[in-house]
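assembly run, all chains below
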Amino acid sequence: MMRFSTLMKHPANWMVGKQEEQGAVITSRIRFARNLRGYPFPGWAKKSERAKTMEILRPAVEGLAPMKGAFSRELGELSSVEKQVLVERHLISREHAARTDGSGAVIERRQSFSIMLNEEDHLRMQSIRPGLKLTEAYEALNKLDSELEEKLEYAFDPQLGYLTTCPTNLGTGLRASAMLHLPALVLSDQIGQVLQAVNKIGLAVRGLYGEGTESLGNLYQISNQSTLGESEVEIISRLERVISQVATHEQNAREKLMEDDPEMVADKIGRAYGVLRHAYLIDSKEALNHLSLLRLGGDLEFFPKDTVHLCDVLLMDIQQAHLQLHAGVKLSPEHRDSIRAEIVRSRLQSLESPDKLPDKKSKKPRPNEGEPKKDHE
Amino acid sequence: MKCDYCEKKATVFLTQLTDGQMKKVCLCEGCAEERGVTDPTGFSLADMLMGDFQKSAGDSAPTSATPKKESFSSSPRVCSECGFSIEDFQKVRRFGCANCYKTFAAELTPLLRGMHKGFTHVGKVPEGLMESHVRRQRMEELNLKLEGAIASESYEEAAKLRDELKKLEEMEVGK
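ok done. output:
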């Protein structure tokens, strides 16, 4: 049986995966909701009924080829810190972490797949990939789902599709989403406009941490809302199109910032570097915001390329439960800030200062040269 | 930033989006703990907290912030398989079992309108159900054509369609 510490020791696949194009899209995620025919949904089921569905689901899921040697637990077996760590890694939902016996989680060794048992639906399965790879993530999960389908009888209706606990998931039961890093759109005050446009075409946008458009760390999640009346492929290709447009906007905004005001960009990145390298107390808000700029610096070649991955891993490791797990004891907020700073300092120890720039960067040509320049208000 | 409840520094920030309405709560460590926000097993969501906060702060929230409840037919019906009622649905916005979708079909349809792009599933179908799914789709199509043929008085065409439909119906029953 895989231990929790072993699961944590392996970095998630999506954190180490080589991305051809670094940048705005950090991860792509696909989630299916499925239920067994003939059993009440988990939220309405009696304890004994939940135990019964667990008995059916768990061996079926553990028996899947990719789940060989997976991390598999009933939630009652995990401490609340362990569950919270899984939430911070996006492996289980916040709601699921509140559950105990009668619910479970099965997580593939490299964390590319995770399956929640008796969450809101009997099965919530997801696959995560680095970069903009929704189709790839979908195909992988679809294969897994088809394999499960041979062993389990799903609740399905020809008219309504896969029957889910909440009608918002009816039909495909599919939620496709991407996590995006959009610092240049935020710096150039375009983020509100872009997000509004995305919202208008029926997609959901939310800051990953923090509040609304002032999302901490400039991290955003875009996902589909409608699940009925469109096929999986249609939903995903539309989403993929929109996300790649947003990524292009971000790219353009970066180039424009570097052309118009390279000193401002260099200053922000340099200051972020300075604080992260030398702080002894740092709260999560400050850390997230500076890591975001450091990550931008990686993309803009102020730092070596792998800085981007370093930042992505740090974004996980500086969160509350991760710190708690690292320390092994319950931490006060002040103590947390101190350990957070310590971790950040040690990880960035060998990262060289971005001094040489920025004049090399400002010569980089912009693709849409002819465009009229917008004055700053 | 200060805690919404007391004067201490806020370290916990909670945001919830409901029907496009954003609700925010800022809490200090102590107040967060007191209200079970830091405890993952008590993640009672911003909603409860918001109600709590609005009371304590004497803040009158705009009524649009609370999602309107659709009024359903008043007859108290219950799902024959799981005992779930429409009142339960109004409370939790979730169903009790797959059969609830049949029981509450009438209440469901208007709800789907604002929720999804369509009313009919067009994606993946479980392997074993594929055949009958395709058959049912074909039957729907034939029925439409049949109506058209009858309306335009092309009886020969109508007879042909009726034969094909009959065959499919037999297969569906014999399954």
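Helices of chain B lie at 29-34, 45-57, 86-92, 100-103, 105-115, 130-151, 155-174.

Confidence is low (pLDDT under 50) at residues 39-75 of chain B.

not gonna interpret more than that til we talk
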